[in-house]
Amino acid sequence: MTKGWAGNREHRYYFFLNKYDDIAFTRCPQCNRKTTKERMFCLIIHVDPKNLFSFNKSCRFCADCGLIIVKKTELENYLADICEKHYPDILGNDYLALGTINRALHRKVKQGNLDANTIIQCFIPFIGHKIFETCGGWQPDKFSMGV
After folding, report:
1. How far apart (Å, rounded) are the C-alpha atoms in residues 72 and 82?
2. Where are the domains of the chain?
3. How big, in percent rounded to 5, are the helix, strand and coil portions of the chain?
4. pTM of the predicted protein model
5. Alpha helices, DSSP H only, in 44-137?
6. What confidence tens digit (pLDDT) does each residue in 71-85 have?
């Protein structure tokens, strides 16, 4: 764990927003081990200009690397549903996954018992955001096709 922009709080986990609908990353894209498992995380998402959302989500997780993998379409569908119902003026705005929050605080957020300042003071920031590029699945050998 490292310390950084969020004051003296320790950062935990790396975050990867999986933009590929057809790739589940059952192998960790960072260490290439078959160690990713499903795990629930309470994510804190910031939506421009000044909106915070707590999202309890099942994610792929590599415990060896500390990498949380979230499907982009699932996250964006969740944000679109919430914004459509309650905040139509921010629908389609830029967003950023900031970190995680413990379940007890997530429940208080859902009940409306926590303000944004308390959430900002209590969430655990990500160490960083990762980007992995892939061709996606099996690719033919260009030499065997006579190219």
Report:
1. 16
2. 14-130
3. 25, 35, 45
4. 0.82
5. 72-86, 103-111, 116-122
6. 999 999 999 999 999
